[in-house]
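user: Here is a favour to ask of a fellow structure person. I have my own habits and do not want them to colour yours. Could you put it straight underneath, so I can go through it closely?

assistant:
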Amino acid sequence: MEVTEPKRIMKVIIYTRVSSQEQIQNYSLETQLKACEDYCKRQEWKIIEQFQEEGESAKSADRTELLKLLDYCSRNKGKVDLVLVHKLDRFARNSADHHAIKALLAKNGVAVRSVNEQIDDSPAGKFMENIFAAAAQWDNDVRSERSKNGLKEKVMQGYWAWGAPLGYLNTPAGLVLDKEKTPLILKLFETYSQGNETIKSVTVKVNRWGLRNKHGKKL
């Protein structure tokens, strides 16, 4: 009688990510996580760990949770089979980073899979993965170019295109004075200009007066 070997259960780490802009646009971590969990259930894979990256761009590989993920795979070599993402652009938006991260995972016997892109270790799967990684970078480059052009156009029109400096507020019409902070900033400069204060001592005074930075913290 032929003996059938039991099906090997793949051990999976789920990695989800949203950037700050995507948080604003309600691109949910929960949506990504559920899609990954459902995919694992259909494939009969076992989820052993999850890493959620919140407010981090994939333009850089230097991400808090991604680094933790790589460290986890290194410390648990042989105990992890796959890293699953909702889409490959969650993993990286730069082709070089994509392949560098994948190579680090491969050293520990870990492959990358996507819920929305059909990739695997076959020649066709590898080819498609390269295309998807390049597409993520192309999309990122196009967004970056549009952003640069938008900033340039704003500056050419005479607008301040960045976050307002302390003492000013951003409005659709441009920069306007912050009526609450302006008097304190004027007092700061007048006090320092008398020549009796150091930067340190005048900072102590201005904090005592109640001036705070844009995050509501002391200067």
Remarks:
- The longest strand covers residues 46-54.
- The two ends are 79 Å apart (CA to CA).
